[in-house]
Predict the structure.
Amino acid sequence: MLVSVIVPSFNRKEFLEEAVASVLSQSFQDFEIIIVDDGSAPDQQPKLENQKVKIFYRPHQGVAAARNFGVAVSSGKYLTFLDSDDLWVKSKLEKQLGFVLDKPQFKICYTDEKWQRNGQHLNQMKKHQKYGGWIFDKCLPLCLISCSSVLMERELFETVGGFDEGLPVCEDYDLWLRIARQHPIGFIDEPLIVKRGGHPDQLSKKYWGMDRFRVRVLEKLLRLKLETGQRNSVLTELKKKYAILAAGAWKRKRFFPWLYYQAKGLSHGREG
């Protein structure tokens, strides 16, 4: 098996069936699909029957743990990930494999994407522009790379340590930054996935102040070995995020968080 497709799912049976169908219809067919049901209610558990599909049922532990488990029980040389509410364009795997085989300097690549909200096309903003190559600095402000668009070598995933299971969200942002600090990332400038949003159970809607989790990721990065330029870029981005979080806390009259992020900003400002 050349490619393993890891699909975590939690109470998304209808979305999941459509997502898996988009994989089964790929023009490239040497793959296995590993569905990790992360503690769904009985009526939401997948019952898909296909020789390419393996389903594992586990207690709810979060998306990072589900993906890591999926990788552990998979066998492909290359790993891909598909969120249960996203879709793949038919040529996605074929084009990505062609890319990495033609450009062996890239151990990981990702693609552009289409956005839908409640079934309607949604334009991306300028800040969501994609880049390829040595893109560590470009990945700092927000999660530039969609998990569903990635294809990577298993060896790379295992070397960097997989997803951080201590992060309830932004676990993908964390992984791409850990990779981008040491490796170039290939980019296919073609929308080969469809991201579907607008439903109430999206993780990005579950937690207020997503920058709180990005701050945790950036602070963790500072404990790793970074080049001087990378370290300075992380400190600059941290200072921006502390300011954003402090302003948000003040606006909501959350004075202890405001004081905390103000102090953090001053501390890291001195370090930079």
